């Protein structure tokens, strides 16, 4: 890396079960205004804009072009889009700033899962020849992973229930969370997963601003410097993977420098309770690390934004002095197929 780049602002919407009365643009505009207001920047001051979303959720091709109305049609902008979680949009914006082509970047992502059956929509991520025609949905595949962990002696149902309970209790301090406080473990959805082991379905959006070098210090009192970021992918075929481990997360963390020094906070994108078990082991997180103090994806899981929220939540803790070195993780695909790890640090106080 030739430039120091930091997250200088983060904003998100409340995650709601339904937002029937709002279009994607109407959902986005308040959060975009909020993140710009936190820095005093105007749209014209942003050097690069990158977004993350999914046409499959919207049900129409190139749906992200309509969402650009939330950014504004004037003045003209340098813009890009990724068809996945906004954490990968942040990665693209980070590389853009590294080149020196821009000093600031706006990254946003959004998802409205409520209009359709999310479990069916996510089958489109699967191998189209051998797996997708069988229609195994996202919960069924996560249950396979959870059962593999139980069979390996890595966890049990009571331990999984404790993860869900802890996450939603922590979410009581998060005004944007969809679920918080005491939440029943509920009935089985697909054994061994109960409703309490699974994420809520909700709509939401998030945005961050990146800035380089001295510009970051001008825009934020305590920038969250990105010390390393990397993403890796597992084999597409589930049958050739060990679902109890996540080598791609471990490799991404290694390349991002996560193992060089301990972290005090980890925001993990673990939509299912069993996935936190996998990620903790892959990232070598001890009990002294605060994991998902925001409540994580078990409290609010807006598709295509939850990974960006993990980076934003980690950065926000650094901004307010609650963390000095934080790890943020994002995932996409079935059973932790694709994984991104970022390491953020604040300057010494």
**Strand adjacency order, main sheet:** 3-2-4-7-1-8-12-11-9-10
H and E order: EHEHHEHEHHHEEEHEHEHEHEE
The main sheet comes to: 10 strands, mixed
Number of strands: 12
* Overall spatial form: globular
Distance between the termini: 24 Å
User: What is the percentage of strand-forming residues?
Assistant: 15-25%
Give me the number of helical elements: 11
Radius of gyration: 19 Å
Q: What is the typical, i.e. mean, pLDDT?
A: 95
Low-confidence stretches: none
Kindly describe this structure.
By secondary structure, the chain is α/β, with parallel strands linked by helices. Helices cover 31% and strands 21% of the residues. It contains 11 helices and 12 strands. The protein has helices at residues 24-37, 55-58, 64-67, 86-98, 118-121, 138-151, 157-170, 213-219, 247-256, 273-283, 306-319; strands at 5-12, 48-52, 79-82, 104-112, 188-190, 193-194, 203-212, 224-233, 265-267, 290-291, 325-332, 338-345. The strands form 2 sheets. It has a 10-stranded mixed sheet with strand order 3-2-4-7-1-8-12-11-9-10, sandwiched between helices. α10 (273-283) links the parallel β9 and β10. α6 crosses α10. The mean pLDDT is 95.
């Amino acid at each position: 890396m030739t430039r120091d780049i930091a997250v200088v602002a983060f904003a998100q919407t409340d995650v709601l079960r339904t937002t029937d009365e709002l279009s994607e643009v109407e959902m986005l505009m308040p959060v975009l205004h909020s993140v710009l207001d936190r820095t005093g920047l105007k749209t014209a001051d942003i050097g690069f804009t990158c977004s993350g979303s999914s046409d499959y959720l919207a049900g129409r091709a190139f749906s992200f072009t309509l969402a650009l109305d939330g950014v504004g049609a004037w003045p003209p902008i340098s813009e890009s889009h990724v068809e996945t979680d906004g954490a990968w949009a942040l990665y693209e914006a980070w590389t853009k700033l590294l080149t020196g082509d821009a000093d600031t970047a706006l990254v946003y992502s959004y998802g409205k899962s409520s209009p359709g059956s999310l479990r069916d929509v996510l089958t489109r991520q699967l191998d189209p020849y051998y797996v997708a025609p069988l229609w195994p949905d996202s919960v069924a595949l996560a249950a396979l992973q959870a059962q593999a962990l139980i069979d390996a002696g890595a966890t049990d149902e009571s331990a999984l229930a404790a993860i869900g309970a802890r996450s939603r209790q922590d979410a009581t301090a998060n005004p944007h969370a969809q679920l918080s406080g005491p939440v029943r473990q509920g009935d089985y959805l697909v054994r061994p997963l109960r409703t309490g082991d699974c994420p809520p379905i909700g709509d939401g959006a998030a945005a961050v601003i990146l800035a380089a070098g001295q510009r970051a210090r001008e825009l934020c009192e305590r920038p969250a410097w990105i010390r390393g970021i990397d993403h890796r992918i597992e084999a597409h075929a589930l049958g050739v993977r060990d679902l109890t481990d996540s080598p791609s997360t471990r490799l991404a963390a290694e390349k991002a420098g996560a193992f060089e020094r301990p972290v005090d906070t980890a925001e993990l994108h673990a939509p299912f309770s069993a996935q936190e078990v996998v990620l903790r082991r892959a990232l070598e997180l001890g009990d002294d690390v605060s994991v998902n103090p925001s409540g994580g994806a078990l409290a609010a899981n807006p598709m295509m934004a939850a990974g960006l929220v993990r980076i934003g939540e980690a950065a926000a803790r650094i901004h307010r002095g609650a963390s000095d070195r934080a790890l943020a993780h994002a995932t996409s695909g079935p059973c932790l197929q694709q994984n991104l790890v970022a390491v953020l640090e604040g300057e010494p106080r």
